[in-house]
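Researcher: Please generate the 3D structure of the following complex. Treat every line as part of one assembly.
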Amino acid sequence: MVPLSYYVILSAIVFFIGVIGVLIRRNIIILLLSIELMLNAANINFVAFSHYLKTITGQVFVFFVLTVAAAEVVIGLAILIALYRGKATVNVEEVNLMKW
Amino acid sequence: MTLVLFFYFAAVIVATAILVVALHKPIYSALSLLVMFFHVAGLFVLLDAEFIAAVQIIVYAGAILVLYLFVLMLLNVRADEGYHQQFRIGLIVGLAVLVEAIFVLGQSGFADRDPAAVPPAAPVPGNTEGIGRALYTTYLFPFEVASLILLVAMIGAIILAKKGIFGKEERGR
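Model: Done. Output below.
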């Protein structure tokens, strides 16, 4: 049986790879993919704790995370398309209209 | 056996996650994310969550990633020339927070706790049945709120992405 801490550490590693991706990339699509990484890390934690605490609640919450992920992707990509129509770029450094 | 499988899945998940962040062409990043989703689903099977594993493949790999690929093909973006200029600082901050998290986790001592000591909750007849039962009884209200979120996302995406929905002229490219 795999110890619970292995799953938690794996999830922490994946989460922080996602954080680093958000910090260092300039392509908005990659930023959204990094957010998917972080949500998946949270899902790994939910399912692992659900298994070790012998309750189904964690798996139910994976569904809600999934819902939020889907909504986030749809809205994010719609914003991206609207942005690309106006500026023809997906580089976050060139999108600085609201920067003071 | 389970341990070997776990390490295989963990290694592939970490490697593909790094590739998602490090590769320069967005299409390769999306495809390595696809590989990662499949291995996360395998991890869920190890944890006796077969239904979640199936949903992971169907919804994440089948729907969300296809949406990403669709937009990638639609926009035809060039490869990224380089990382953000805060590359070094971002890397250092991320690694520092990761080390801190693992350290705090190690200090908390929850890993030493005996998993068998947890009293079993109500016996679950089956994975899918148990999830359905919990979802439609205990978590009925959050379930309805989730459907509302999806509706808002749908309307918002149509309004954001549609050209000239408010009767304005399209602006120059």
